[in-house]
Amino acid sequence: MSFSTLGLTSELTRAAAHKGYSEPTPIQKAAIPAILEGRDVLAGAQTGTGKTAAFVLPILQQLGAPQAASPRALVLTPTRELAAQVAASAAEYGRYLTLRTVVIFGGVSEKPQVQALRQGCDLLVATPGRLLDLAQQRLLDLSQVRCLVLDEADRMLDMGFIHAIRQILKLLPPKRQNLLFSATYSEDIRALAGRLLHAPVMLEVAPRNATADRIEQHVYQVPQAHKRHLLAHLIRDGQWQQVLIFTRTKHGANRLTQQLSGAGIHAAAIHGNKSQAARVRALEDFKARRITALVATEVAARGLDIKELPHVVNYELPNVPEDYVHRIGRTARAGGSGAALSLVSPEEAGLLRDIERVLKRAIPVLPAPAFTVAAPEAAPAAPAGGAHRAAARHFAPGQGRRRGGQRRAPSAFARSTRSV
Known about the structure:
Helices cover 35% and strands 16% of the residues. By secondary structure, the chain is an alpha/beta fold. It has two domains: 202 residues, P-loop containing nucleotide triphosphate hydrolases (Rossmann fold); 200 residues, P-loop containing nucleotide triphosphate hydrolases (Rossmann fold), CATH 3.40.50.300. The strands form three sheets. The protein has a seven-stranded parallel beta sheet with strand order 3-4-2-5-6-1-7, with helices on both faces. It has a seven-stranded parallel beta sheet with strand order 10-11-9-12-13-8-14, with helices on both faces. The N and C termini lie far apart (61 Å). 46% of the residues are buried. The C terminus is likely disordered.
């Protein structure tokens, strides 16, 4: 099946071919015809399966030629990076059209964004906060919006955007097409859909909260204090050229970046406290492979679309199990393959159980390789004998006991670090 068989115009099929897409993905096959028919849609699909094109392509076709200055289609995203990615995709798919796409988000000056809106906008891509800010200043007119998209809708709810979404809905015409797209498919999303959508087409091209089967997933059990040493060893010994690493906090991202840099690995951090310019620069350096490791928090990584990313590492497991799906979905995008590794400390055993419960399967545990442990940062002078080294520990999948069906980490994890 080709894109033309879905009812798309020649300009849009040419643009898809220009991006190297010859055959639509399952979510695109299901969603594009429904959207072109004007139906409301609730769609769940694995991250990296082409859901952005699934709504951008038919929206561009529905918009037709440029009209009034006010936007006629609105895409809401939870993060700046995802907004920028969607806008970039719209520009690429609309390369043979004359439609005007504008993207607005916080963290940067609003003046260029306001100026772009005044020059005319057909498709507006925005984060909720900046959108409401401009609307409340009467710098943005949403009265002409005929199609609303909530992209990564579950993440917007997790980030507390439900109040902002309700305010935005009040600014939109009551008669419009509504599309909800998300990598995960929570009960909260179903509840929101029940209030927002009218007789929607329900699309779920993969089991709820499934991960791409092309992602090789495994776990290393390692004490928290040893994680950075094992990670540095894996990067160097495996000669990794590109790895996206997740931490739970901004401070943790900064600290790990400094530690990796100290170990001779080119690294940069990306999180909410970084300026937009710094985030863009770090991402560009990572895509160009000028840096090896990009250390990111959950929110900042939403929307990162890195072609052929080979490795994703969960340096710390997420508190929300569904976030694991989003994290590892940064690899194996658009039909590719990739590897997702999680470094799990004894304290994170419960989080791992929660993730496996959501996935409905266990993640394989591999024996940790031998790796060097440097002297503790805040410790006094090392005892005679010099450098600390890991005890060349190997934790085989069969080691440890099980409780409630979940393998427990060996009791050695509970003991303090030893030098040899």
